[in-house]
Amino acid sequence: MGENGAAKNHQSLGAYPPFDVSINLGQNQTLGGSKCYDDDGRLKRTGNVWTASAHIITAVIGSGVLSLAWAIAQLGWVAGPVVMFLFSFVIYYTSSLLADCYRSGDPVTGKRNYTYMDAVRANLGGVKVKICGFIQYLNLFGVAVGYTIAASISMLAIRRANCFHEKGHRNPCHSSSTPYMIIFGITEIVFSQIPDFDQIWWLSIVAAVMSFTYSSIGLTLGIVQTVANGGFKGSLTGISIGTVTQTQKIWRSFQAFGDIAFAYSYSIILIEIQDTIKAPPSEAKTMKKATLLSVAVTTAFYILCGCMGYAAFGDAAPGNLLTGFGFYNPFWLLDIANAAIVIHLVGAYQVYCQPLFAFVEKWALERWPESDFIAKEYRIRLLPGTSRRCFYGVNLFRLVWRTAFVVVTTIISMLLPFFNDVVGFLGALGFWPLTVYFPVEMYISQKKIPKWSTTWVCLQTLSIACLVISVAAAAGSIAGVVLDLKVYRPFKTEY
């Protein structure tokens, strides 16, 4: 069987007809034409505006919301909200450009691009495909590390809050984040065995609910703290020189751009989300509605959470908003919020990593199509005596590769558990190339916009401005990591 056949059949990995005890992926080529399958041989897509919005909100309202109060504290009451609105506009605009790239040619009947890389290959081609793939999958890998760190911080916060409640606030209640990273990693190993992206819609909905839960609690506690303070803290220009040095002020301001960019970042999985949407209407039309709804909702939440957090703490706003309220009463409410963060991050980890999992598995299948280790799917009946449809498919390569991936991200998280700095760097790494540059270039190519026309100049100006922001944010985050490494000792430092 040729590479095209192998690739086509791999696209429906984990979603096969209910027959045979085991199936070799290379033998299942005639799935199209059934009412259970779309015209490309994949299972019928069932997504809509609401499921797509759930995927986006799961990806967007993530751990990034926790660092927004700190980001606004670096920029102040004027620049902070303005920068957040500008980022939301750029994200929505470029996401709309990217949504049009799901199909090549006709927006209704054109060839589907299943992944971000497929869209770049169809519209740009050449070396840009490899560059895009490297940046995208490096960013997805980094997000997995960032989410592992964030989840461990929240689990550690629950442990310390309960310790203070039982033993009193004079007890230091020191603990390491390492055991909690291991717990999170084991959980992700289990969930990573879900075969493909379309089958985790329920996990996205649960995660989206959890994201609203902890964001709402953080917002409420910020309002209560502000009322208790007797007014708003903070200043128009942010943290003042004296509290930090002039150099630190500059680096922190740059890092704040990265934190805000990370909080909005989801373009790297937009095409994969769009590939779950049913048609008609066209997938692009549905995706644009979901993007508008999701970005509007998340921006409202971000402005409220970031501003109320800054109002509550002023220049002392913490890198993680929920840890800033201390571990005092109501400790149970903070426990709920941090538990919601952990549940949300379990789902968000999968939303981000499934495209990377699928890419590696597709590549392996094309390279070794006859290998049973890579191609064969073993069917395990979930419950004895149940319908033949109630089974779970086990693929040995998927089991080994995804487990190894989670183990590696967990180990790296243990070595670099710096939430704020890692978040800022990831935001900088992915913002310009994946959120701005490639969508703009694909749109120019697709619409055949003449060089040096007004539209072309405006799009290129937007791209260059965002490049400058990304470089500055990366520099600020790297400076923060260097400072943290001076005092951190891997596997030994306790909080």
What are the key terms here?
3-stranded antiparallel beta sheet, 495 residues, two-stranded antiparallel ribbon
User: Which percent band covers the strand fraction?
Assistant: under 5%
- For the record, the count of structural domains works out to 1
Largest sheet: 3 strands, antiparallel
CATH architecture descriptor text: Up-down Bundle
Assign the CATH class.
Mainly Alpha
Order of helices and strands: HEHHEEHHHHHHHHHEEHHH
User: Helix proportion of residues, in percent?
Assistant: 55-70%
DSSP E strands, number: 5
Look at the helices and sheets and give the structural class: mainly alpha
Helices and strands in order:
Blueprint: H1 3-10, E1 22-24, H2 49-60, H3 68-99, E2 103-104, E3 111-112, H4 116-123, H5 127-167, H6 178-191, H7 201-229, H8 246-264, H9 270-274, H10 283-313, H11 331-367, H12 372-375, E4 376-381, E5 391-394, H13 396-415, H14 419-447, H15 454-485
Antiparallel strand pairs: 1-4, 2-3, 4-5
Helix pairs in contact: 1-11, 2-7, 2-10, 3-8, 3-10, 3-14, 4-5, 5-6, 5-11, 5-13, 5-14, 6-11, 6-13, 7-10, 7-11, 8-14, 8-15, 14-15
